[in-house]
Amino acid sequence: MIKSITYFLALFCAIIPNLANSQTPNINENKFGDLYNSQNLNYFYKSLNNKKPIHILWLGDSHTASDFISGGVRDALQIELGNAGRGFIDGGIPYKGFSPQHVQITTEPELKTLKSFPLSKSDGGPFGLGGYRAVQSDKETYKIIFEHNYDNFAICSRALLMKDNVVLKAAKPENDHITCAKMQFNSRSSAGADLVINGSKKFDIEIASIGVWNNHSGVVLSSFGVPGSTLKDLAARDDISIKNQIAVLPPSLIILAYGTNEGFSDSFNADEYKNLLADQIKRFKALAPHADILLMTAPDANKAALNRGEDVSCKALPPELVAKYPQINHDELGAGYYIPPNLAKVRNAQIEFAKSMNIAYWDWHNAMGGDCSAANLSLLENREIAGDRVHFTKIGGTKIGQKLADDILSAIKYRLRH
């Protein structure tokens, strides 16, 4: 485990010798692969040099919700920097296909979920980091099974839950914000790997998030994604609730991964978006004063032209290959694809803002192959993008997550040497 910067550097170089032969970046550029402005991750670098968990908080849309990309980063960083836990996830099963890595969740019966998105149909606050609350009555059981044992467990809800062996009891909250209760377990016990939350007979419990970690050095990566959401939706969530959640395990790095849904919108104003970015970064720096920000710029994503008069910028699949892809609509295969025009505008606004404000950013679009890469990656034998030409498969998400992790590790290595 990391005991000092000097010790870690020696360990780091021994574990990943292939990085020793990687290209040395220009010190003035602070560019590592597709990671830019890495010199502005000082809090994150400092967190490597202590015996506490290195907490990374990842917020985004459906790309984050799948946990494929964030999971790839989590696994890769934990191999090199140590594994301090799974981190925080949404409570309950907030949407179809919810399958966070390294944890299994079952509810009996299915819990009702209150949603923050879309804003016009929100079920009402407060919503914190994740944008969901799972409602549990006294007749409903919520079971969480983790792959490993952990010595710390936390639950954030509108009703504090206190430890009583493994079963938790509810206590009515005093305000209308999400609050958190933290419990510690003996790490040698199986209690940390299998938790059951029983409902209260007095009132419903609204669970916003749960988290597990070990109180030692190593990476913890918490991920919260809301399918279809934008940075504007994140801006609408409750500050006090977010602050209460962040305080349980303060992050040293916050990753913001938005832009796809903004790019698919028919309207986009770059100046308004830059102002929104500025407001949200200022907000999270106030809510987490010892955390750096890393922007993920908008990735490539493609839509089927379907002869609607769009600019077909990405090639259609050749007719002789159509039969190989029965899972994709043949009309779409023959139509060709186009890149939503506002997607590049969103990405350019993000990069311009990050450069002007000295914010670290990762060029996700370039990392996946540039324009039309979504269509191309969807046609591989081991598909890296799903048939919608937008979302990553687990194979593709893990691969792109590994690329981001490699760039972060290269930046760490360079930082420790200088």
Tell the overall outline. globular
Q: Using the 3D structure, state the CATH architecture of the largest domain.
A: 3-Layer(aba) Sandwich
**How do the strands line up in the largest sheet?**
1-20-17-16-2-15-3
Strand content: 15-25%
- Low-confidence stretches are 1-28, 188-192
Helices, by number, come to 14
Q: Helix content range of the residues, please?
A: 25-40%
> Main sheet, how many strands, which sense, barrel?
7 strands, mixed
Count of domain modules: 2
For the residues shown, what is the average pLDDT? 84
CATH superfamily of the largest domain: SGNH hydrolase
SSE layout and pairing:
Layout: H1 5-15, E1 35-36, H2 42-47, E2 53-60, H3 62-65, H4 68-81, E3 83-85, E4 87-90, E5 103-108, E6 112-115, E7 132-136, E8 141-146, E9 152-157, E10 160-164, E11 167-171, E12 179-184, E13 194-198, E14 205-213, E15 218-225, H5 231-235, H6 239-248, E16 253-257, H7 260-264, H8 270-287, E17 292-296, E18 303-304, H9 319-322, H10 330-335, E19 337-338, H11 341-357, E20 360-362, H12 364-367, H13 373-377, H14 394-417
Helix pairs in contact: 4-14, 8-11
Question: How is this structure best summarized?
Answer:
By secondary structure, this protein is of the alpha/beta class. It contains 14 helices and 20 strands. The longest helix has 24 residues, at 394-417.
Describe the overall structure.
With 418 residues, this protein is α/β, with parallel strands linked by helices. The protein has helices spanning 5-15, 42-47, 62-65, 68-81, 231-235, 239-248, 260-264, 270-287, 319-322, 330-335, 341-357, 364-367, 373-377, 394-417, and strands at 35-36, 53-60, 83-85, 87-90, 103-108, 112-115, 132-136, 141-146, 152-157, 160-164, 167-171, 179-184, 194-198, 205-213, 218-225, 253-257, 292-296, 303-304, 337-338, 360-362. The strands form 5 sheets. The protein has a 7-stranded mixed beta sheet with strand order 1-20-17-16-2-15-3, with helices on both faces. Strands 4, 6, 7, 9, 12 and 14 form a 6-stranded antiparallel beta sheet that branches. Strand 10 (160-164) and strand 11 form a beta hairpin. The radius of gyration is 22 Å and the shape is globular.
